[in-house]
Design goal:
With about 170 residues, the protein is of the alpha+beta class. Helix content is about 15%, strand content about 25%. The protein has 2 helices and 8 strands. The strands form 3 sheets. The chain has a 4-stranded antiparallel sheet with strand order 4-5-7-8, covered by helices on one side. Strands 1-2 form a two-stranded antiparallel sheet. Strands 3-6 form a two-stranded antiparallel sheet. A hairpin with an 8-residue loop joins strand 7 and strand 8. It is globular, with a radius of gyration of 17 Å.
Length: about 170
């Protein structure tokens, strides 16, 4: 007989910056849709410094809005924080909310960028959505808020042009 899972009291986790996290350190169900998902933030401990934060999601999935078939992408999200940073667990849960969401590649990629912008108001952001082929053609979608800040070290995305990615 399998042991029953421990019941944990739902509590808010607090960071040193006095941010309140409701997902971090807790079992959290995936939101039913991206619109229902919440991005949590924390105060940027180095808001006076110019630096880049990169999140990479090599196994992002959504659904084709026409056929309902799964679509797969490798996302690279770069941003220069202002006063806030994105809490990574909430970002992961936000991204998994797309698994049952039907939208075109362009919509998914730009929607993710706009949600990050709304949550943390970064000094700069770019996202590369490297989508695996649909109908034999890869569709890559790129979005950025403007020119990168002067003096920013901006590494390559690390995603090669399509040649049977994998």
């Amino acid at each position: 007989m399998a042991a029953s899972p421990r019941k944990r009291k739902k509590t808010a986790v607090k960071s040193s910056a006095k941010a309140e996290f409701t997902m971090l350190g807790e079992h959290t169900e995936r939101a039913a849709s991206p619109a229902e998902a919440r991005l949590e933030t924390a105060a940027n401990p180095h808001h006076d410094s110019l630096y880049l934060v990169r999140f990479t999601a090599p196994e992002f999935t959504s659904l084709c809005p026409v056929t309902g078939q799964p679509d797969f992408a490798h996302l690279v999200m770069d941003y220069v924080p202002g006063k806030l940073i994105v809490e990574s667990k909430s970002l992961k849960l936000f991204l998994t909310a797309f698994r049952n969401h039907g939208a075109f590649h362009e919509d998914c990629t730009v929607m993710i960028a706009k949600r990050i912008i709304a949550a943390v108001k970064p000094k700069w952001l770019r996202i590369g959505g490297y989508w695996y082929p649909r109908g034999g053609m890869p569709i890559d979608v790129f979005f950025q808020t403007g020119a990168p800040p002067k003096g920013l070290w901006l590494p390559e995305t690390g995603v090669a042009p399509y040649r049977g990615r994998g």
